[in-house]
Amino acid sequence: MSELIEVLSKEEIARSITEVGEVISHDYKGGKLALVGALKGAFIFMADLAREITVPVQIGFLGVSSYGKSAESSGTTTVTKELDLDVTGMDVLVVEDIVDTGLTLKFIVNYLKDKGARSVKVCAFLDKKERRAMDVQVDYACHEILEGFLVGYGLDYAEDYRNLPGIYHLEM
Ligand SMILES: O=P(O)(O)OC[C@H]1O[C@H](OP(=O)(O)OP(=O)(O)O)[C@H](O)[C@@H]1O
Ligand SMILES: Nc1nc2[nH]cnc2c(=O)[nH]1
């Protein structure tokens, strides 16, 4: 039997996104942003973050998968859905639910540079450094988490739990 232990409540999540949205709006003041969400995990965070940013944004999604039905990275990232926004010459902010080993993020940043983005920065809801294996930069993070496998608020385990409103530690 697996057990869920709450790590972040719905209210804590909302507060942190408002704060990060203010910082991003300040940093990009006078500009325009392309928000690129990494599917599937970032679908809820994207919707909440976008509404806390006050500079004009365009929204795109890129489907990527590194995990499948496991709590361990497969070691390779596959594109499950091509980016649906032209980011040529744009300032892009990658919107990720979690950065863990960094493999997926490294792939996304390279992908966006290849597509001609002018700049690429990263906003992660969770920055989990325990298993970091790649040299990646997280420019904005709502929460730093030390360890464990997390679910809820978009994050899954074998496609379950994405709709939970909080973040939970999955004890297996
Ligand atoms: O830093 P990493 O170790 O690469 O892990 C982070 C990635 O893992 C999850 O994606 P997953 O492959 O599970 O796909 P999903 O978003 O469809 O759940 C999550 O959404 C991140 O994109
Ligand atoms: N659901 C989930 N996906 C991840 N992908 C990388 N790390 C994690 C994690 O802790 N939880």
Ligand inventory: 1-O-pyrophosphono-5-O-phosphono-alpha-D-ribofuranose, guanine
| Subunit arrangement of the protein | single chain
- How many individual β-strands? 9
CATH architecture term: 3-Layer(aba) Sandwich
Q: Please provide the ordered H/E string of secondary-structure elements.
A: EHEHEEEHEEEE
The value of Rg in angstroms is 15 Å
Helix proportion range? 10-25%
- Sketch the major β-sheet: 6 strands, mixed
Broad CATH class: Alpha Beta
Approximate shape: globular
What amount of the residues lies in strands? 25-35%
Structural class: alpha/beta
Please tag this protein with its features.
Rossmann fold; 3 helices; Hypoxanthine phosphoribosyltransferase; binds guanine; PRTase_dom; 6-stranded mixed sheet; single chain; binds 1-O-pyrophosphono-5-O-phosphono-alpha-D-ribofuranose; cytoplasm; 172 residues; 3-stranded antiparallel sheet; purine salvage; alpha/beta; 9 strands; globular; 34% strand
SSE blueprint and pairings:
Elements: E1 3-8, H1 10-27, E2 33-39, H2 43-50, E3 57-65, E4 78-81, E5 91-99, H3 103-114, E6 119-128, E7 140-145, E8 150-151, E9 167-171
Parallel strand pairs: 2-3, 2-5, 5-6, 6-7
Antiparallel strand pairs: 1-9, 3-4, 8-9
Helix pairs in contact: 1-2
Bound molecules: 1-O-pyrophosphono-5-O-phosphono-alpha-D-ribofuranose and guanine.
Pathway: Purine metabolism; IMP biosynthesis via salvage pathway; IMP from hypoxanthine: step 1/1
Organism: Desulfoluna spongiiphila
Cofactor: Mg(2+)
What would you note in describing this structure?
Pathway: Purine metabolism; IMP biosynthesis via salvage pathway; IMP from hypoxanthine: step 1/1. Its cofactor is Mg(2+). The protein is of the alpha/beta class and 172 residues long. It has a single domain, classed as 3-Layer(aba) Sandwich (Rossmann fold), CATH 3.40.50. It is built from 3 helices and 9 strands; from the N terminus they run βαβαβββαββββ. Strands 4-3-2-5-6-7 form a 6-stranded mixed beta sheet, sandwiched between helices. Helix 2 links the parallel strand 2 and strand 3. Helix 1 packs across helix 2. The N and C termini lie close together (7 Å). The site of guanine has 9 residues, from strand 8.
